[in-house]
Fold this sequence. Notes:
The protein has helices at about 25-30, 85-95, 105-115, 125-130, 140-155; strands spanning about 5-10, 10-20, 50-55, 55-60, 70-75. By secondary structure, it is of the alpha+beta class. The chain has 2 domains: about 5-80, Beta-grasp domain (Ubiquitin-like (UB roll), Roll), CATH 3.10.20; about 85-155, Orthogonal Bundle (DNA polymerase, domain 1), CATH 1.10.150.120. The chain has a 5-stranded mixed β-sheet with strand order 2-1-5-3-4, sandwiched between helices. Helix 2 (about 85-95) packs across helix 5.
Amino acid sequence: MAVSVNLKLNGAACRFEVEPDERLVETVREKAGLTGTKLGCGVGECGACSVLLDGKLVCACLVLAAQADGCEVFTVEGLAPGGRLSDLQRAFVEEGAVQCGYCTPGMLMAAEALLRRHKRPTGEQIRQGLAGNLCRCTGYTKIVAAVRKVAKRRAARGGRR
Ligand code: FES
Ligand code: FES
């Protein structure tokens, strides 16, 4: 039997009817139409489905939609309201940190979570922060460089994005 779930999705109050075994990644992609969040492994190994749930980085393939009832969910679409890329997204483009792009939304969410925790992360902290996200294409170096670049830019602007 379907249950009602209320989410604050990228700042907007939303209500969905979900099956008890429906995963948050499915609700976000199929019911909310936010297909930036990817479904990769489906078992918590690749990070492609990463979103922020009440500010905490989670794999949306491991969270039931019903568990997220009453929570704030932030997806990659929330980084670019109105289609305007965030400074983090621009840094990924500038550094060539995007190739096939499948991992990119999850990487961006992991990087966003990291930069909320650490304003000036060390290389080690960046690698740790992205450790749950797999990329088959880039070798990670350019992704780390993009995160470092945006942290440096924000610091130069007094923390502003
Ligand atoms: S799809 Fe969720 S971790 Fe891979
Ligand atoms: S850019 Fe292809 S998997 Fe990361």
